Amino acid sequence: MTAGPDVRLLPGGRLETRLPDLKPLYSDGEAIAEANRCLYCQDAPCIAACPTGIDIPSFIRKIGTENVKGSARVILSANLLGYSCARVCPVEVLCAGACVYNAWNRTPIAIGRLQRFATETVMSRGEAATVLPKAAPNGKKIACVGSGPASLACAGYLALEGCSVTLYEKRAVAGGLNVTGVAPYKMHAEAGAAEVEFVKSLGVTIRTGVDVGKDVSPEKLLAEHDAVFLGCGLGEDSALDVPGAAGAGVTGAVAWIERMKLEPGFALDGVRHALVIGGGNTAIDAARELARLGVPEVAMLYRRTEADMSGYAHELEYARKEGVRLVERAVPASFVREGSALRAVKLADGREFPCELAVLAIGQGSQGALARLFPGVETDARGRVQAEEKTGRTANPKLWVGGDATGGELVVTAVQDGKRAARSIAKALGLAERADAPMRAGSV
Length: 444
Known about the structure:
The chain is α/β, with parallel strands linked by helices.
């Protein structure tokens, strides 16, 4: 990427750099050959399966005719974070899973890899900021809380509409889970940070190290901006309330993945047995990462059966091929220690599994407390912010919300939340809809 992150914030020597890309960037010839396999279906089921509604046959056809910039324009008009989504989306259950080739027992079109080819090519050429048309400044000021996919999408689309947009991020590194939490074999932190730079190139200002509610009040944001978008994500990892859980060797999955991706010198010294507790996609990611980093014995402990797991079946199959073992009906009762060191996990049925590292992937807390600092905002029993489903607008007429704060699960659905909110904000502020606007009605 020509527009990369600040190397001081993403230093070398990080553990994630040991994990190579499992689906490398296509060469020009590979991309054209794969694009020419597409049937360009008139009623393309892949479009219906894409949460952001990308015109997939159209962008693939443009790759086949070597119009890569035009291909990227189709993608980014519908999904401003089309680059990261190309790498992290579960295409097997979305666009590629809907490809008509599946019904014929043939390999579906590699939609994700083609999407990555188009977006990464224009980013590497330094052309990404020129792909989409930008309106003249309109004097409207927008604040976005958090800098994950939902906020980045909302901010970028509104900047293209001529708004002055500022993102407020409490971390030192912007990008949310695209930088701190994506499995490295799908995308390293540098790639997520490069996409942040692309959004900045559209005219978005990002202020890191600003904790809304402490460094700046919600009331001040609302008073100084025409609209505010809340994309604050989720809170800390949930913990287990069992003996021995508090101490060295037991960590939350999101916290562990962030250290693995961002902390220089972080290592797995002395870890020969690792357990991941949970059955979702985060648990599978952590288990695969541990196995691929060379831990000899990696097992997932899940309290129910495989059929009950929320994690994707294809991801679990990949994990098994990489040496991960699934233990069903496994409910931890205690963490066994020798002094302060973790030695094993004992289950409620008496089984005991040795481990030097236990990674808890049993959910995260909400950011409901932060959301409720904004006047008029309501949350449900799980801490999810309540808002209009089609627009993301809350009971506070100046506040919109999207992403994990409303219960979202995927990067692509967070992007769609941000896009819908941007369109609603633009309408609420009386901005005239342009025929060439990336987020015009037909693309939302």
